[in-house]
Amino acid sequence: MSVPALRIGTRASALALWQAQHVAALVAAQQGAPPVELTRISTSGDAQSEVPLWQVGGRAFFTREIDRALLGGTVDLAVHSLKDVSTQLDAGLTLAATLSRADARDALVSRDGATLAALPPGARIGTSSLRRRAFLARLRPDAKLTELRGNVPTRIERLQHGDYDAIVLAAAGLTRLGLAGHISEYLPPESFPPAVSQGIVGVCARSGDAPTLRWLAALDDAQARLAASAERALLRRLEGGCQVPLGALATVRHGRLSLAATVCALDGRRALSAQGESAAGMAEALALGIRVAEELLALGAAELIALERGAHAVEEP
Questions:
Q1: What is the pLDDT of residue 307?
Q2: Which domains are seen in the chain, by residue range?
Q3: Residue 152 carries which DSSP code?
């Protein structure tokens, strides 16, 4: 009697397929694992690839259709870049695994290899991320920030064709696709904090699907889970979704968890930062995220978030 295949829902971009195939290989490596197959699902974010993200209504448009297929039983698990995943999952879904974190930093890719500081005055820098635009404006107020959509290889092609002087992408995505050689500079988290959960692949499943959850438990990385939990608790408390220029990074060292976060005005002129530390436990991680968020709110983050949200409704890809 044949064993039913474990069906993985994924977007069809090169990076999404790399992530899904990576999860498939990790599952298949376990003794007695069922066969695994990939189901490519088009999302609203993919369908509107030429539209600036702030003109696309709603949220979670890189995950919504995949999660609906998961809830509907079309697939058995969904593989996402965790930074795309809402901090409030749909009822009936669980974040079953957080894979070990790759490089969380952003990377600058420039046509001539120049660093951010060395780009010429008025350089054209491409990104659709509100967070990246804000921190670019803070570090290079002279730069001309322009829209950039499409998958990672397409973005690099547009750079090479002369549409931009530089672009900013996640270092993890470039590395996973074998494109790290294009990186001109890794942007330091102290001045250019990454998106919440950047560099972490998240795997969602149905809460009651014990046969599937069994194979995903071994994929969960404890340190990535703690870091993501702290960062996502922070984001959930700020109620920013992906619509505010927030950067945050949690790290685990010597049994301690630290979290640093910054909310930045879109014009880069004002930034609010907070940080904290706790024991490296799940309850402590969640409490740390809330505590750092409360510090930001006490500094005036709510007003800054309301101002930026009103002016620009943007989701980060």
A1: 77
A2: 1-100+199-220 (3.40.190.10), 106-187 (3.40.190.10), 222-317 (3.30.160.40)
A3: H
